Amino acid sequence: MVVASVHSHMSLERTEMTERLLAAIENPYTQIIAHPTGRLILQRDPFDYDMERVFNAAAKYGVAMECNAYPDRLDLSDVHLPLRRIENTGTTQNARQGQRVQCVMEYNGEWHIP
Question: What is the mean pLDDT of residues 66-90?
Fold first, then answer.
């Protein structure tokens, strides 16, 4: 299993961060994007990138987006991702724009805490 995540150069401009995440998703070995907003509650703001483009690419390439339940992250909350699960359809819907994105969500906590 290959999990990709941003651990450096976290303050890139929106376009650069979007392209960086798209490159990771398009890599044929990538299976999951971990903590995709990069936020640390009360420590670091989320990355600025085009989330709709990134999630559409994840759907296209079959890459799961992590929902990190670690209390310092709570990554992909309703604040950062206005997508909600549509019951019994296996898809998500953008609550603001009414667009559907078929994207796998992977739920867990933080795996590399010392």
Answer: 61
Q: Pairing state of beta strands 92-94 and 100-101?
A: antiparallel
Contact partners, residue 84, CB within 8 Å, separation at least 6: 78, 92, 93, 95
Cβ within 8 Å of residue 95, ≥6 positions away: 82, 83, 84
Distance, in Å, from the CA atom of 5 to the CA atom of 101, rounded to the nearest integer, reads 21
pLDDT category at 37 given cuts 50, 70, 90 is confident
What CATH architecture does domain 3-108 belong to? Alpha-Beta Barrel (3.20)
The model carries a pTM of: 0.72
Distance CA 29, CA 27 (A): 5
